[in-house]
Batch of 2 targets.
Target 1
Amino acid sequence: MAEINIRDLAKELNLSIGTVSKALRDSHEISALTKEKVFALARQLNYTPNPYASSLRGKKSKTIGVVIPEIADSFFSHAIKGIESVAQKKGYHVLIYLTEESFLKEEFILSEFKSGRVDGVLLSISRETSNSRHIEELKKKGIPLVLFDRTEEEIPTTKIITNDLESSYKATHHLIKRGCKKISFLSISRHLSINNKRIEGFLKALNDHLAGACKNNIVDCTNDDKQNQAIVHKILERAERPDGIICSVEKLTIPVYLSCRGLQLNIPKDIKIISFSNSEAAPVMNPSLTTVTQPAYEMGKRAATILFKAVEKKNFKMPNENIIIPSSLIIRNSTD
């Protein structure tokens, strides 16, 4: 079968070559719907861009790829700083790719890497990622890969994580000690191992310290801020509303604060709030936010350090292990 090129994709989709090219580069000029169509067909036809294949054959690109779900979460901005601190010393460029929580986009980005665009990859998976086939295909190409924060347990490689279960347990226990008896956990995705570990720690703390714990305490949220605010608003309007909330990710904090303000609920008198968050704004929020703060910079730095061992040493075998860097519970006014 002849190799698929951009011209073939454009013809099949009835789009201009320029539009397809821009979509593949994730240009802001192209709509999200058009990008999704282009990515889907590219994957279906096994399209792989090859401008780097001939020029880099047998050479190093001096570039690593960092694939993350979003940049708005301050965890990733801090992690990137840690990655950059290592890459700069090594004389490498860092290319950052955003999946925007899309499995399809993540799949396409990794397929691009198979052409030799990067010498190694650091990956934190999207909330939609439910299988690891595309990750396994990248590894088969011999491209070094390290997973960090959001990982896939089935992939045999090094994973840089934090103690999510223990941190969630500690956060839940803290709310219980502060008098909370009806605690809700705002979940971001049941596909993500970090989310499930946090749920596990939450339920364990309820079972250990608060009778009558059940899975009804878990509230599934989305990737849309407006939808999340509506979800939170609904649970806070209940007659038996929660008196404590744990946000599994930073982006769920604002919907909670806004809903409390809209319903004239006092934080922490009426409801106490903890969030997994690295936000520098947490101390100045009103009230200041109690957080489970992840060691983002250290995680990024450690992930990059291990990746470069594989990139620079021909016979380096990437160990299949979890490296755990503990998080910290920082108590502020939202739980006083």
Target 2
Amino acid sequence: MRRLAGFVGIALAAFALAPAPAQEIQHQAILQDSLSAIAPFAAVSGQTPGRAQMPGGEAAAPSGYLAFCDRNPGECRTHRGQPDRIALNDESWAMLEKVNIAVNNMIRPVDDSEHYGVAEFWAVPVDGEGDCEDYVLAKRKMLTLLGLPPDALRITVALNRRRERHAVLTVVSDRGDYILDNAQDDILPAQETDYRWVERQDAKSRTGWLALN
């Protein structure tokens, strides 16, 4: 776990220091180090994956996401011809678990108004602080560097029990949709969470986002 946490820190630092065009390149040395870090954790937790689908109609992208894409266009590009789901197996499940836990432990939760002085600001949390959207962007960045297809890693907005907007990362797999959440380290099938889904990314939508039922 210490090696993976170190990779998370190194990769976030590289994202912060690289000029915009370089941020679009997956650095092979970092990728190899990250794969070596995850290799010892190939065992899965033994749960049987469930299935969850989230149908919906076209939706406008969140304003915070649009502003993030303006600053980091390479992070928001549609990847035509690449898979839009992952094959869920022991190796990929272990990768999801370890990245979820590592990012949850590496980032200190801070509200945008305190962190940036504005109500809504999405960013890869290179300074080790951020809110729920920043956790999601960090996990998405780590998993794409580890080789998972970006279109299978979808930012999703929901309402929690207090009816507050909350962002999580949905991983679309051949065995259902799974949720990586900064509120907990366990990865749950989408239908086993207590969230009310609002919207999520979908490359097939004209706007890149779908409203969820």
